[in-house]
């Protein structure tokens, strides 16, 4: 099946710095990708929809200035957590929509720890 | 508000025993329904999905789920549990007209398998 890769899988940063997480569709083109956040022992929460070549659509309550999303190509979307704080520590997961198959494929997730 | 309820945050079974993970949705209109599995520090893998075709859906790893409109349920079952089935399982729904990635996830059920 199709593969979606996230990088890095784990990142530790200091408070106030910015962190970029990449999401790549390895063997298909994805015009639409999605970013989720998963809190410990909680479900996934959709943060935003990333559309290639246009601005991301953010869910209610998600700070667009803190979580910058860029979808510059059909195989890459990035999530940048700006001025990270300890409360931003979480597991971030992306998914990519494979139009021809109608399938949604998930990345392996990226664990962010802000000290 | 539309929601997904997974009964039981933790289910423990013995190896070889029946696995039953419960999922109910709130909607008068049957949605698309999904079951995903998540292993520690990994993304989500699709087990199976219901898209208004057959009500009994067979998935990977011997899992299956039955859509019951009258009960608004989509419970996941496996006749004989294996140690490798130990993981977190998420039920998710997507309503007609919703974006492909706008899945509403249940809170998850952690499955433990005892030897």
- Which structural category fits the helices and strands of chain A? mainly beta
Shape descriptor of chain A: globular
* Class from helix and strand fractions of chain B: mainly beta
How big is the Rg of chain B? 13 Å
The greatest inter-chain interface is formed by: A-B, 24 and 18 residues
User: How many runs of DSSP E, i.e. beta strands of chain B?
Assistant: 12
* Cα shape of chain B: globular
Give the CA-CA distance, first to last residue of chain A. 37 Å
What's the mean pLDDT score of chain A? 91
H/E series of chain B, N to C? Answer: EEEEEEEEEEEE
What would your notes on this structure say?
The complex is a heterodimer of chains A (115) and B (115). Chain A is mainly β and 115 residues long. Helices cover 0% and strands 55% of the residues of chain A. Chain A is built from no helices and eleven strands. In chain A, strands 2, 4, 5, 6, 9, 10 and 11 form a seven-stranded mixed beta sheet that branches. In chain A, strands 1-3-8-7 form a four-stranded antiparallel beta sheet, with no helix packed on it. Chain A is globular. In chain A, 37% of the residues are buried. The mean pLDDT of chain A is 91. By secondary structure, chain B is an all-beta fold. The mean pLDDT of chain B is 89. In chain B, a hairpin with a 4-residue loop joins strand 8 and strand 9. Chain B is built from no helices and twelve strands. Helix content of chain B is 0%, strand content 49%. In chain B, the strands form three sheets. In chain B, strands 2, 5, 6, 10, 11 and 12 form a six-stranded mixed beta sheet that branches. In chain B, strands 3-9-8-7 form a four-stranded antiparallel beta sheet, with no helix packed on it. Chain B starts with a strand and ends with a strand. The interface between A and B is medium-sized, with 24 and 18 residues.
């Amino acid at each position: 099946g199709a593969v979606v890769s996230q990088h890095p899988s784990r990142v530790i940063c200091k408070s106030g710095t910015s962190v970029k997480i990449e999401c790549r569709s390895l063997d298909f083109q994805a015009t639409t990708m999605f970013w989720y956040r998963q809190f410990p022992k909680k479900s996934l929460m959709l943060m935003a929809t990333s559309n290639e070549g246009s601005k991301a659509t953010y869910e209610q309550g998600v700070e667009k200035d803190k979580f910058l999303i860029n979808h510059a190509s059909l195989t890459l979307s990035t999530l940048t957590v700006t001025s990270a704080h300890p409360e931003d520590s979480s597991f971030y997961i992306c998914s990519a929509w494979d139009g021809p198959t109608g399938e949604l494929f998930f990345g392996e997730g990226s664990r962010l720890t802000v000290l | 508000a539309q929601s997904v309820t997974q009964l039981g945050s933790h289910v423990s079974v013995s190896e070889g025993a029946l696995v039953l993970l419960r999922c109910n949705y709130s909607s008068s209109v049957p949605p698309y329904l999904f079951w995903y599995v998540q292993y520690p520090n990994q993304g989500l893998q699709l087990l199976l999905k219901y898209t208004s075709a057959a009500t009994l859906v067979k998935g990977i790893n011997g899992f299956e789920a039955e859509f019951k409109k009258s009960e608004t349920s989509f419970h996941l079952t496996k006749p004989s549990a294996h140690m490798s089935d130990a993981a977190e399982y998420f039920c998710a729904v997507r309503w007609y007209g919703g974006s492909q990635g706008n899945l509403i996830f249940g809170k998850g059920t952690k499955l433990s398998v005892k030897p």
